[in-house]
Structures are given as structure tokens and as C-alpha cells.
Amino acid sequence: MVKKIPISRRGFLRRSAAAAAGASVFPYIIPARALGLDGHIAPSERVTMASIGVGGQGTYDTRALMAQPEVQYLAVADVDRSHRDAAGDMLQEHYKKRDDVDIKIDRYNDFREVLAREDIDAVMIATPDFWHATITCAAARAGKDIYCEKPLANSIPEGRAVVNAVRRYGRVLQTGSHERSRDNARYACELVRNGRIGKLHTIRVNMPIDNHGPIDNQPVMPVPDGFDYDMWLGPAAWEPYTEKRCHFYFRYILDYSGGEMTDRGAHIIDLAQLGNGTDGSGPISVQGTGWFPEDGLFNTAMSYNFEFEYANGVKLIGESKAPRGIKFEGDAGWVFIHIHGGDLEAEPASLLKEVIGPEEIQLGRSRGHHADFVECVKTRREPKAPVEVGHGTAVMCHLANIALKRGIKLDWDPVAERFTNDEEANRMLAPHVRAPWHV
């Protein structure tokens, strides 16, 4: 029986080049699907991928990416064996049903084993926030393109390091701010950018907090079998294991995340940047107040109000109230985008029937956030949420949290990425990182 061997995109291109030079590099029969026949995608057109972090959001992203016909998964990595086995089994079953490649999904505890593989073109990163920058920078150095969940990084200096690494190594990066790819959101921002609501003066973001805290301190618990807790902590300070420190709940602990501000807030504030035309820039001041629980495991802000001011005079006002979404207010009307789902409201209602002309600002449309990433890996163009955009939005989230902690108005230099009137706030910019991890 002839053995059929799956060929990665990189491997196919290398072998094709060698064949063109007269080398004998095909000692086996290649099935039609490996040549892109009978409706299949040829290896030279496939994007080989691995997912790093396959919990709840990581599984969602993996499903979305594996559904792209150009994507061929090869591996998953997660410090929780139950997560990586569930994701690996899901992918294995997907390819079994599709029956267009002969593939085995490799499963790793350590993401570095994925990055060391030359046959992987791109990675999806959906680890807890405090791991994003370390893994993304390592992936860029390893020559991988990257889909990284929001927030792009867990601090402003780490985010800048990500931008530098992605640009230095010429990688494509899509930040997982998928609300930006919704047609309704892009249309609403076109209405704002083209003056349909008059002169924009105020942006209001509503970010209610669901019932996830505060909670009492949990007792120290035994680490579950198959969970590499020390690797989960990675660059964060060591703490004894307890169930609600990890997985979904990490987002409510400041050592690992920024609470609602960097969770769904990253989606909403991202649309503020798009509608205000300030992608790649940022505000000049921020102030706010918030309530941070002082007892218990969770310590991110559980209620808050904050205000940014941009150089163009626009103010962004945020509160922990419903409904979740963003409202752009001008001197001739307003438009509100609901998060999630993207439904629009406007005053006057006729705004939603406006047609954006060919000579006006056009923000384009997307086939979908994950599909856009795959397309950009192949074409090398910028995706809808490239690295500078993801960084700029994360900066806003981190600035808000620092302002809530300081309780004073902070002046911000968006170019130097430093506060100009408070050194204590500057000392809060960079986290402490546990050796040997670094960005």
C-alpha cells in the first residue's frame, strides 16, 4: 500500500522549488486533494495553523479558523490537558468528516514546542491576558503570523514590545476585536466619520459588569490532575492554586487581567477609536473613579466612571451601566451600537437609511474577522485590527484602570506613552514579570 503523507504549505513550496531544480523529492504518490484537484485547496494555498490556549474563547476561535477552507490545523497547545484533548479531538473529528487531508493533531503542554515547528505558518493565541505579549513576541520571532485575542497585551510597555516585534519580523497580526468587523459597526462609524450626526463631541461607552464578584477568598486547593499550574502562572507572581484564580475567572484579578475594562471594554473602546478616527493615536488626558474590592480573590474595578479627552476636543465618557454598547453624539444627532450583536439605534432614525457615497470615507467590509486574518496571511495586507490598532485600544483600557486607581486627572503623551504629570502613575505602567519569562 502506498503511504499518503500530508504536506504543509511551506513544505509544498519547498518541495516544488526543489522539483523545479530537478531534484527527486516525491518518492510517494500525491492524492488529488494534495494538488488542489476535485475542489480541494492545494497545499501551496493552505495556511497551516496551531492554537495556543484552547479554553472557552480559544475553542471558539479555533472553530472559526478551522472552518476556513484554506486553513489546515496541525497542533494545539494548552497547559490544561482536558482543554487540549477536547480541542484536539474536535479538530481530528473535523478533518475526519471533511476527509480532504490525512492529518494528526499534535497536542502540547508547552507553546514553545509549537513555535519550534517549521511546518506551522500561523498561530492563534487565546491564553489569559498576562501571557499575550510573551507568546506573541516569541511567535513573531519564530516567523509565525498571529491571531491574538484582545487585549493585545496586559500592559502598555508590553503592547509596544508586541508592535515592535511584529513589525521587525514582518508578521501579519489580527487582534481579536471582532466587533470591528461587523457590518453594522463599520456603517455606524462611517456615519460618524462622514458628519451625518454633525460635529462629533461626545462618545459614551456603557460597560455593565455581570455577576462575577466580588467573592470571598477561596481556600488553597490541590492542583487538578493534568493541569500544569506553574506553567499557567508563567510570568505572573506565584500564588497558591484555587479554582477561581484560573480559566474564565482570571479576568477579575489584576495580576492577570484588567476586569471588564480589558474584557468586553476592549471591544467597545475599540469602536470608539474607529468612529473617532483615532486608530494609531490616543487621548491626551484621562480621569475617573472606581470601586475595587479590598477583600476577596477578585480585585478588578466592579463599578466605575471615567473620562478621556482627545486632542480634537472629543470626550469619551464611560460608565458601568447598561445597555452594553457605545453612543456617538454629535450636534445634529446620535447613533448607538449594541454590543454584542451589533444592532443600531439612531436619532433621527432616518440616519440609518443614509447611503455613504463613493467619495466619502469608506471603512470597507469584512468577510468575517477570522476569514480576514486568513486572507491577510496569504496576501500580506493589513487586517481589520492590525497590531497598532490592537495596541492603541489596549492602551485606552490600561489608562482607564490606572486613572481609576489614582483618582486624579492624568495628562498623557500618546507618542511617548508616558504620563506627564504623575510619576506614580508611570510606575504603574509596567508589570513585574517572573523569570525567566520576558517579551
End-to-end span in angstroms?
A: 48 Å
The structural domain count equals 2
Tell me the overall shape: globular
Please state the CA-atom Rg, rounded to the nearest Å: 23 Å
- The overall strand count is 15
Helix content bin: 25-40%
**Arithmetic mean of pLDDT:** 91
Strand content: 15-25%
Summarize the structure.
Helix content is 31%, strand content 17%.
Keywords summarizing the entry:
six-stranded parallel beta sheet, Rossmann fold, 12 helices, 439 residues, globular, disordered N terminus, 2 domains, Dihydrodipicolinate Reductase, domain 2
Question: Overview of this structure, please?
Answer:
This protein is of the alpha/beta class. The chain has twelve helices and 15 strands. The strands form two sheets. It has a nine-stranded mixed β-sheet with strand order 13-12-11-7-10-9-8-14-15. The protein has a six-stranded parallel β-sheet with strand order 3-2-1-4-5-6, sandwiched between helices. A hairpin with a 5-residue loop joins strand 9 and strand 10. Helix 6 packs antiparallel against helix 11 and helix 7 packs parallel to helix 9. The chain is globular.
Summarize the topology.
Layout: H1 9-20, E1 47-52, H2 56-66, E2 71-77, H3 81-98, E3 106-108, H4 111-115, E4 122-125, H5 132-141, E5 145-148, H6 156-168, E6 173-175, H7 183-193, E7 200-206, H8 229-233, H9 264-276, E8 285-291, E9 303-309, E10 315-319, E11 325-330, E12 333-338, E13 344-347, H10 369-379, H11 387-406, E14 410-413, E15 418-419, H12 423-427
Parallel strand pairs: 1-2, 1-4, 2-3, 4-5, 5-6, 7-10
Antiparallel strand pairs: 7-11, 8-9, 8-14, 9-10, 11-12, 12-13, 14-15
Helix pairs in contact: 5-6, 6-11, 7-9, 9-11
